[in-house]
Task: inverse folding
């Protein structure tokens, strides 16, 4: 069976295509921008790639076309797909119908013969990638050999997805829409048995008109949980309390808060050591390389989810000590002349604030934030009123205003704003000093600014 993916180079679609190839399907695909590292990974998996959307998918003789949510009406390949009446579906729907069902190209499964996987889904506005990566590692280190599909690269695995050797499957479950023909959130297709809801606030202003619309989607996925399933969520999150109040028919466990089931007590300001309690009972202590209150919350969620599938808390606590985080989550790129340069994916005011909160205790010099408001929500300026407070812990702030932005960070009157990356780099290099931490925050490549700053610091150090 031959599958053709439209929009194959996105993290979700590319990883799904690689999993399909691993399952034994013949796979090809196209995207507007075909570039490393995803293009290299796809080609290494034996997947034929076509650059651009100005073509007819019928030329690839597909048995089924998988349509990514980057595709829209008016694109030539989409119009050709509809005119040719080729069979098509979305990525999340294919994941549900084939991979999560345990179906392979050679299977002709009768009703009732499916081998459905136990899906552990991690949803929420923030922390999905890190929490899903933690959860996959806790299962892996316990010998459970899970499959996973994560919107990042967990350092413990070095890959964003794999089939695994058991029925357990961890997935980062985001609320973005499924496809141009299916405006439900992706996660409603996953039918989890273990559901983590990390947190919830307004985001994706290009898709949702308000928070209530997102809450409706979150309740849709809760409706799919079986009675013996479990929803795990922070007790104090008012937006999630509203979702739960709409109706919950499954087991519940709460995180954080005075009366929550799972609680943590920090032993140091950075959060690199903390104690864990379950319903008042002391379980043990975690000592790890991560920092910040947000990562402790992520850890509690991962611990609770792992326990639901049978991982003993004592083992899970030990495994957190060897968790290596995720690429682009406060990732240290290097240290040059006593200046540390970090890459972080933060692209929402809350994510920016929590990243800086986690970094502040360890920084002995100045904490310098370099931010590209790149997500659709940030480019629209929907949340710009919250940005000044989000950078209060930074000693200096540099904003990059891309041509796609409909507003200017200069309006914030916090830090410096630049419309040219070269000017931003020059201003930053003129200010940075030994012991400073430079944290670049963007959900894109930031125009290669990370590497340019590292190179410039290296050259300057050699000259000095």
Result:
């Amino acid at each position: 069976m031959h599958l053709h993916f439209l929009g194959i180079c996105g993290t979700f679609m590319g990883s799904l295509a690689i999993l399909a190839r691993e399952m034994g399907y013949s796979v090809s695909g196209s995207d507007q921008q075909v570039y490393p590292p995803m293009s290299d990974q796809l080609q290494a998996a034996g997947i034929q790639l076509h650059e651009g959307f100005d073509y007819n998918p019928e030329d690839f003789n597909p048995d089924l076309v998988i349509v990514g949510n980057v595709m829209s009406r008016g694109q030539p390949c989409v119009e050709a797909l509809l005119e040719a009446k080729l069979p098509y579906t979305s990525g999340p729907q294919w994941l549900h119908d084939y991979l999560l069902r345990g179906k392979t190209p050679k299977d002709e499964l009768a009703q009732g013969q499916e081998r459905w996987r136990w899906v552990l889904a991690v949803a929420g506005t923030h922390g999905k990638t890190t929490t899903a990566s933690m959860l996959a590692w806790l299962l892996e280190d316990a010998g459970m050999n899970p499959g996973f599909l994560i919107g990042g690269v967990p350092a413990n695995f070095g890959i964003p997805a794999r089939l695994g050797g058991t029925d357990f499957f961890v997935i980062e479950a985001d609320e973005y829409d499924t496809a141009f023909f299916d405006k439900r959130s992706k996660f409603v297709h996953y039918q989890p048995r273990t559901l983590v809801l990390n947190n919830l606030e307004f985001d994706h202003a290009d898709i949702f008109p308000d928070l209530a619309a997102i809450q409706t989607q979150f309740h849709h996925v809760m409706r799919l949980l079986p009675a013996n399933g479990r929803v795990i969520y922070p007790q104090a999150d008012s937006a999630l309390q509203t979702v739960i109040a709409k109706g919950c028919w499954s087991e519940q466990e709460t995180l954080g808060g005075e009366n929550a089931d799972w609680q943590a007590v920090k032993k140091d300001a950075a959060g690199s050591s903390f104690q864990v309690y379950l319903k008042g009972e002391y379980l043990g202590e975690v000592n790890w390389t991560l920092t910040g209150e947000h990562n402790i919350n992520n850890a509690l969620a991962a611990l609770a989810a792992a326990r639901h599938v049978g991982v003993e808390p004592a083992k899970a606590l030990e495994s957190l000590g060897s968790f290596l985080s995720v690429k682009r989550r406060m990732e240290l790129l290097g240290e040059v002349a006593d200046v540390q340069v970090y890459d972080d994916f933060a692209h929402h005011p809350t994510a920016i604030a929590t990243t800086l909160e986690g970094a502040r205790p360890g920084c002995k010099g100045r904490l310098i934030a370099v931010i590209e408001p790149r997500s659709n929500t940030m480019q629209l300026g929907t949340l710009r009123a919250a940005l000044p407070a989000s950078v209060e812990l930074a000693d200096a702030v540099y904003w990059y205003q891309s041509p796609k932005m409909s507003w200017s960070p200069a309006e914030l009157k916090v830090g410096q704003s630049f419309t040219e990356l070269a000017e931003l780099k020059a201003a930053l290099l003129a200010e940075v000093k030994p012991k400073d931490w430079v944290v670049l925050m963007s959900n894109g490549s930031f125009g290669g600014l990370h590497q340019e700053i590292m190179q410039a610091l290296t050259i300057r150090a050699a000259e000095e």
The chain has 14 helices and 23 strands. The chain has a mean pLDDT of 90. The chain has three domains: 2-99, 118-320, 331-463.
